[in-house]
Design a protein that fits this description.
Layout lengths: L14 H7 L3 H25 L57 H13 L3 H14 L4 H14 L2 H14 L4 H13 L3 H14 L4 H13 L3 H14 L4 H20 L3 H14 L4 H13 L3 H14 L4 H13 L3 H14 L4 H15 L3
Helix pairs in contact: 2-11, 3-4, 4-5, 5-6, 6-7, 7-8, 7-9, 8-9, 9-10, 9-11, 10-11, 11-12, 11-13, 12-13, 13-14, 13-15, 14-15, 15-16, 15-17, 16-17
């Protein structure tokens, strides 16, 4: 049985900037220290939340993992429920133990019944049916793929990889198997092997947005952001409604901007923050980052615009409130600065940049500045 082919689609010394704008050196240092701390948090967030997920239980072909295949011998995309007891969805007992269940003999039915059970969360039972189908037809790449997918959901990565490999031996152009196996390899940090599979998948389907997104993630985890961005951008171009690819494109552009700020390359950083906002408009993180880069460049009034928007979109952002406060302080707007520092400390009473900033704002106001 051939598988159905789905149409799947940097460090800058802030003293110079302070002399241009009249911002006290201590304030700029607080700006920059705050910036570096947030960079660390954002980098961790990227790696922890955007690692490729080869186990994603979805039928959406644009997601990382391709879902179990349904044999073309039945209605594609609609697994048959015949032979699976209707009461199994509400039962705590295995559906295979239901007296009304009769084990099918036909491998196609076993494949489809297994998928029906997997949809309901009966992973062990699905594995049992897929294994039975494999006994009857060991040369069926779809059965190997479905079994691999079920093993992945169960957390048995080695078994899953073995069956994806078998599926690819039987059907070398199996794009979904290449993608899923590649993602498992990424999870093991075997990036070179993973990229081979993504590359082979793209040879078969060059405009597959899911594979392009997978490859982009693999590249981003290796720190090659330029190439990662190219793949994410292409995935979004091909599938504008692909939220994960769009989010990954945003994160990669944002990370590159952060790296450039640390190197003192502010103009380039601003370009990447702006590109991040093109991918995900009105995102408070990129707005805050763009504001910081502009503030370090001496463009304080522009920075205020972006900090203000970041605060509007995320009123709970301690960093955005504090950055806005320092920008107001730079412009001599001590009342606004005091208000923002006060709000920052309401959100986080122990936030030292705001504690120091509020003291400085009050000192300036007392001096009539």
């Amino acid at each position: 049985m051939k598988a159905n082919k789905a149409q799947t689609q940097s460090e800058r010394h802030p003293t110079k900037a302070a002399r241009r704008t009249g911002l006290p050196v201590s304030a700029v240092w607080l700006f920059f220290a705050l910036f570096v701390a947030v960079l660390i948090l954002e980098a961790f967030s990227y790696f922890s939340s955007n690692r490729p997920r080869g186990t994603s239980p979805s039928r959406n072909p644009t997601n990382i993992a391709a879902a179990p295949m349904v044999s073309s011998a039945t209605n594609a995309g609609q697994p048959s429920r015949a032979g699976v007891p209707l009461s199994s969805a509400a039962s705590t007992n295995s559906p295979l133990l239901d007296p009304s269940f009769k084990m099918p003999e036909d491998p196609v039915e076993l494949l489809n019944y297994g998928t029906a059970l997997l949809d309901r969360g009966w992973i062990n039972e699905a594995i049992a049916l897929y294994s039975k189908a494999l006994e009857k037809n060991p040369e069926d790449e779809e059965v190997h793929f479905n079994l691999a997918y079920a093993y992945t959901k169960k957390g048995k990565t080695n078994e899953a990889m073995e069956h994806y490999d078998q599926a690819l031996k039987l059907f070398p152009d199996y794009v979904e198997a290449h993608d899923n196996l590649g993602n498992l390899l990424v999870g093991q940090e075997k990036y070179a092997e993973a990229m081979e599979h993504f590359s082979m998948a793209l040879k078969v389907m060059p405009e597959n947005s899911s594979t392009l997104n997978c490859l982009g993630k693999c590249l981003a985890l290796q720190g090659t952001l330029r190439e990662a961005i190219t793949n994410f951008a292409e995935a979004v171009r091909l599938n504008p409604s692909f939220p994960e690819a769009r989010s990954n494109l945003f994160n990669a552009q944002n990370r590159w901007g952060n790296a450039l700020v640390k190197e003192g390359k502010l103009e380039q950083a601003i370009e990447h923050y702006s590109a991040a906002l093109q991918a995900m408009p009105d995102h408070p993180s990129a707005l805050n980052n763009l504001g910081r880069a502009l503030a370090l460049q001496g463009k304080t009034a522009e920075a205020v615009t972006h900090f203000s928007e970041a605060v509007r979109l995320n009123p709970a952002s301690v960093e955005a409130h504090c950055n806005l406060a320092y920008a107001f302080l730079t412009l001599g707007k001590t009342d606004q600065a005091t208000a923002e520092f006060t709000e920052t400390l309401r959100l986080n009473p122990s936030y030292q940049p705001a504690v120091k900033g509020l003291a400085e704002a009050r000192k300036k106001k007392a001096a009539g500045q």
